[in-house]
Amino acid sequence: MRPNKSCLSELFRIHNIHANSALGQNFLIDPNFLNYIVNSGGFRENDILLEIGSGPGILTNLLAPKVSKIWAVEIDHKLFAISKELFGHLNNVVFIRNNILNKKQDGLNPEVLSTIRADIEKPLRVISNLPYKTAVPIIMALLEGRLRLTAMLLMVQKEIAHRLIAVHSEDNYGAVSILCYYLARIKILRKVPPDVFWPKPMVYSTLISVIPDYRFPLPREQYFLFKSFLREVFAYSRKTIKQALLKTNRADKTQIEKILSLSRIEISRRPKQITPEEYLGLFHNLNPYPPSQWDKEFIIPLRRDRKTIPM
User: pTM for this one?
Assistant: First the structure.
């Protein structure tokens, strides 16, 4: 099947399929951009790929000759059936019909992990055109999971890309920005216009590179407490940090003022104005943890390797 609008729309007509906007189904159809992904993605013949949202299998088919194996996960049963019908002959592709996310709690779907268990201990690369509603949960589940991920090449909406790489005092800065700061090195590679998709989305997308790089200096259970702490604070992002902490009921007014002073954070600052390092210090002062258990240096220099392009 040729990757273009007429072929895909005819295929959908024959199979009585309608793109599901609720699932964020906007399919890459531009041959030039598809070739750009395949040829500039740095794929090697020994790579094992996890493709999330493989759709009708257009990109899957193009990538199969480049890599050792592809686990292609698709939640839509009709698209799954089409991809199996068209590309089921590919010996190095395993098609999986399931949700990549766990429905009951944050994280990856254990059924999918069980299916790919043969390669679960091996280095994996991820490629995906992520829908808006589930992009951040999927990215976080991948970064927080126990898969041996070496790199991710992801298509996300422009707004989400900016949330992931935002620094303090920027409008898009939030809990996700801070968590990604400690979990990965993220670069914006290319702005993507709506014209390369069918149906056309209403907004621009962005191709990003995500290199997992776990740098959180406390044990894993402390990371998830830190994550909960950030979510609570940023629920009151328009208030001062003192007011936000009072709302979380973690300490009384006097204790919070002392802890903010100890953390060298002015009580008048707002949550978006506080750096990841300052949040880590604040979290530690609210929840003291033995210094001997810290894995790395307490203060981590602000990264200078985040690449952005004019948007």
Answer: 0.91
The more confident residue out of 71 and 118 is 71
**Residue ranges per structural domain of the chain:** 5-212, 220-293
Spatial contact of 98 and 75, defined as CB atoms under 8 Å apart: yes
Q: Which two tokens stand for residue 261?
A: 């002073």
Q: Which two tokens stand for residue 140?
A: 């976080």
Rounded CA separation 95/72 (Å) = 5
Q: Rounded to whole angstroms, how far apart are CA atoms 103 and 105?
A: 6
CATH of 5-212, one of 3.40.50.280, 3.40.720.10, 3.40.50.150, 3.40.190.10: 3.40.50.150
Supply the DSSP symbol for 8: H
For the chain, give the percent of residues with pLDDT over 90. 74
Phi/psi at 4 (nearest 5 deg)? -145, 170
